[in-house]
Every structure is written in C-alpha cells, then in structure tokens.
Amino acid sequence: MERATCIEMIYPELEDKLVVTIMGACAQELYNLGHRENFFYLQHAMGLASSIGLGLARHLPDERVIVLDGDGSVLMNLGTFTTLARYRPTNMIHVIFDNGSLLSTGGFDSQTTSGITDLAAIARGAGIEHVASADNELQFGEAVLEALELDDLSVIVAKVKAVGPDHYGMDLELPENAFRFRRYIREKKQATDQ
Hints:
This protein is α/β, with parallel strands linked by helices. The chain has helices at residues 3-10, 25-33, 49-59, 71-76, 79-87, 119-126, 137-149, 174-193, and strands spanning 18-21, 39-41, 65-70, 92-98, 101-102, 108-109, 130-134, 154-159.
C-alpha cells in the first residue's frame, strides 16, 4: 500500500477538518491533490505534527483535527503518545504512515523497519484506547471511517511502501501557509459564532 493512495482515499473527508501534516513526502502528496486553506504543512519541524495537532484539538474542541504523520517523525517524539493519552482530545485523529524509512531526510531505515519497534503497540502501551493498524487499503479505509464515527482520540498506523512523490516543491511558503491556516480558523469560528 502506498501513502499517496491512502491520502487520496481520505482527501474528500478532509474538506471541513483541520489537517496538519508532517514535512516532506506526506505534505507534498496532500498538496499535489489540491491545497485547501484548512491544510497546514508543518515544514522543517520533524516530530512536531502531533504536538501542533494536540494544541489545535485542545484549543478548538468543536473542530475535528486530523494529523498526517510519519514513523520517523513519531520516533523523534515518542512522548507524544503519553501526552495524547493524558489529554485525550476526543476530536483528534492521528494517522501515522509507517514506511520504515526516513524517506524525506535521506531514505535511511527507521527503527520500525526490522519489525522490532511497533508504533501501534507503543500507542496502546501509552494508554491510547483506540488504536488501529492497517496493512492494506481496505483496512485503512475501515480504520479511518471508524475513527471519524468515534467521539474519541484515535491513532491509525498504516504500513506503507517507502516511496515518495516524483517531485518536491510547493508554491506556498510556511509563513504564508500559517497565516492562511490561521485566517481560515478565525473566519470559520466567526461564522459559527453568528
């Protein structure tokens, strides 16, 4: 299964959610499908997508927050699982694309390659109740649908191939993306408050 296919599968569901991606391939593959103002591509901050997602989920409890992350990023910030379990944002879904590779930073094997490190088991061990693993598109789609129906924190670990996009490059710099993302949130909040 490829990450780009998984992202394309869930793209229609992301239209009205706050979406935070980690840097590199994941961000590029979402961007390639068509940028939306509710997408924040966390460029140059490996490991922090889940932390940003948690902050958004806690600050905006009426919004659904989707974090699209990678195994290398999560391994850099394993404490994210204990923090997520502690605060348990019921409006957050943390999708981890585990390709067993630090693809965006040179393609080196990550600790999940050998099968010794199991991110889903770590999430469960940290105290996250709703954790799903997916090895194919059907399992992934079912896990996402179930997470969207739940009113609780969900983690989905999707095993994907270590392949990325044909090219990298967005016509959207991080400061502009952050400004537009913030404006989207503010305008949506103002519309619902009226």
